[in-house]
Design goal:
six-stranded antiparallel sheet; about 20% helix; about 160 residues; alpha+beta; Thiol Ester Dehydrase, Chain A
């Protein structure tokens, strides 16, 4: 097969305009199982060296069955780039502007996490548009471990 390759035209999914997005669309990330290596890597990057995250004895003394994965690491599972959402935005994406999160159930190495972003609001602004998504992370038991919201600013014109 022969064709002219253009890397700027290489898209995973066709990009859409703000007016083509729909409330209720859900963008899922592939499941991921956390390991001790993931937790160690995040500890190194975040510089959060609290023993609750790596010391089994310490964690158990304070009522946890095992070291607790960093909350911000769980939040990272809601990164829009882990889904196809920003690929749908394409060149109209301006900024990730806001987020909220509630940590509901602790996460441990060995847990498998399932993340999703659902468009809940599309707000036209002056020449721009704001996309609001509900974000969720469930574990392998079906428990909601994190819930929150993201907001993104897009070009409309």
């Amino acid at each position: 097969m022969s064709f002219d390759f253009n890397p700027t035209a290489w898209q995973i999914v066709p990009a859409r305009g703000f007016d083509q997005l729909k409330v209720g669309e859900i963008f899922r990330a592939p499941s991921r199982t956390l390991t001790d290596a993931h937790a160690s890597a995040f500890q190194t990057v975040s510089c959060d060296n609290h023993p609750i995250h790596y010391d089994t004895g310490y964690a158990q003394r304070y009522g946890h069955p095992a070291p607790v994965v960093h909350g911000l690491q769980v939040l990272a599972f809601t990164a829009p780039g882990a889904t196809l959402l920003p690929h749908n935005f394409g060149a109209i994406f301006i900024a990730f502007t806001e987020l909220t999160a509630k940590f509901l159930v602790e996460v441990h190495a060995g847990d498998t996490l399932y993340s999703a972003l659902e468009i809940i609001e599309l707000t036209p602004l002056d020449g721009k548009g704001e996309v609001t998504t509900d974000v969720t992370v469930h574990n392998q038991k079906g428990e909601l471990v994190l819930s929150g919201r993201h907001k993104y600013l897009l070009r409309t014109a």
